Amino acid sequence: MNMRGFPCLLIAFSFVTTIARGSEWQTDYERALATAKAARKCVLLDFTGSDWCGPCIEMKKVVFSKAAFLSYAKRNLVLVEVDYPRVKTLPEKVTKQNERLLHQYGIDKSGYPTVILLNPDGKMIGHLEGYSGERPADIIAWVEKLRVKSP
Fold first, then answer.
1. Strand partners, 118
2. Mean pLDDT, the chain, whole residue set
3. Distance in angstroms (rounded) separating the CA atoms of residues 122 and 106
4. What are the boundaries of each domain within the chain?
5. Tens of pLDDT along 40-71?
6. Which residues contact 80 (CB under 8 A, 6 or more apart)?
7. Which SS3 state, helix, strand or coil, does residue 11 take?
8. Which of 24, 53, 118, 143 has the smallest CB count inside 10 Å?
9. Contact present, 72 and 41 (Cβ < 8 Å)
């Protein structure tokens, strides 16, 4: 690589890192609700089996890790990962919270991934079950449609 391209590469890396940092996935549901209410953003809950669920892993790779989605999320969403891993261990507080959320939102353990969208007041305004190859633009359009309809 020649050194003339290095500044461009450095700028691009900084941009992607900034986007990712501004739209990080949280694990604290209550904190996410408070942040969303204060910022008047919707909350996107991703019920996932992050280390064993093939469709979950694919959705994260194809949608949730892409710059287009992360940029949109930074401006419009508070992201919450509600994880049910089989290999990695979560803190006990997060595990208990996630079990409670599983029941609160009526998630079927065979139905991962399930994505729930909450309005800024924490009211459920939509949900998607499974992953069928959606792209970032598809998920963004789904969120936008629901945001516009939400009171």
1. 43, 124
2. 88
3. 16
4. 6-149
5. 999 999 999 999 999 999 999 999 999 999 99
6. 25, 26, 27, 28, 29, 32, 43, 44, 45, 46
7. helix
8. 24
9. no
